[in-house]
């Protein structure tokens, strides 16, 4: 047995709390609990060598790039990630401005600066703007089914396709222009797959889609890296709270576990790690990604989770969105260019793809964001790609990815002599063993109730030992799933739940729902 020496043990009555996972949900919960005198015995068990989870900033290309979370979505007063980032002085002046905080984007990605077609000819701005207006108008309509008794179709994708089919029938242009319009729409579908973290919008449930809440504010980034935020939270914790390289194998609960050094005290939970170490506890906050839970559902909890919770985990959606960074000697794009869209002229959202992934994986790429220059000699593009194509990309070598994307860029720019990028860096979230994907969505067959079901602590009956296992993480927040602010709020929510149990008179800062 591992002992907890080095921390204030308090009396034998101080509850022992373990947090599984050192992402922003786990760190947020730990920070909240460490500030309360009732919790002197706290440990965070992190499977990897670093904290931050799906927030992952790397020094590269002479600056910092985000392999994980990229933006603060909706940086405004109701967003705790924005508030913390402002408090820690991690943001630019303009991102803190009142004007930025009040901007309503509707959660939509900005328009491309330029749209390259696969024939090597740029697509007219007018056509792209027209299709963006159609697509995002339909996306806004999908959010209105939330309060309706029944939906016309099960998924967001089917609804969008049904509406596009009807409108396309009356487009006045020639066949070639109509095909180009559908190809541009297909690119917007691919963008939406990245936003939702899904392979296809046909997998995203229509009725609950509007439950996701978009906060006001113009999405912003961290000039020094998103990880500055988690580093600040970590720095506020007592120094030996986080245990790294400690993957958990099984959470044993509803038991009566003893520890030699605890003078006969028993604990309802025992956390068993892959290396054989065991940590008894009164309460465990599980913050692991939904992708990991899905993969280890049968072995991670002993006894197994109640049927309705296990069902919720199986039904909820969890997909992959990856980034591919390309560094160039010289930019081939205009100085004010921010987002390069790639349009494959032979694609349409109304037609299914039949080719093998290895031949067409790169067609799922939405194009490239131009990263702000770290210095004048560094020119970096960041491509986004979601779904099965993204997972296939993870299986390729850096050389293969670089070669494929060089061919794509030569083709779409019409410049066969375009120099190849000098280096490539990419994320591989599906291959990451403790993540197994990027973030959650509400899949066809599930609803927001499944998110609430996942967030419910165990045991659910009136057992003597209350709140043995608590659940946090982006996938447990009904209206902010898939975001860092949803994850942080969920960690605070579970910390507050424990504080309320152990100190019923405590003044909680909430409501964090």
Summarize the SSE layout with pairings:
Elements: E1 16-20, H1 24-34, E2 41-45, E3 57-60, E4 63-66, H2 80-87, H3 93-96, H4 98-102, E5 114-117, H5 125-142, H6 156-168, H7 175-196, H8 227-235, E6 242-243, E7 248-252, E8 257-258, E9 266-267, E10 269-273, E11 278-281, E12 283-286, H9 290-300, E13 301-302, H10 307-315, E14 317-319, E15 321-328, E16 339-343, H11 357-360, E17 367-370, E18 379-386, H12 387-394, H13 398-413, E19 423-426, E20 439-441, H14 448-455, E21 469-471, H15 484-502
Parallel strand pairs: 1-2, 1-12, 2-6, 5-16, 7-13, 12-21
Antiparallel strand pairs: 3-4, 7-10, 8-9, 10-11, 14-20, 15-18, 15-19, 16-17, 17-18
Helix pairs in contact: 1-15, 5-6, 5-7, 10-14
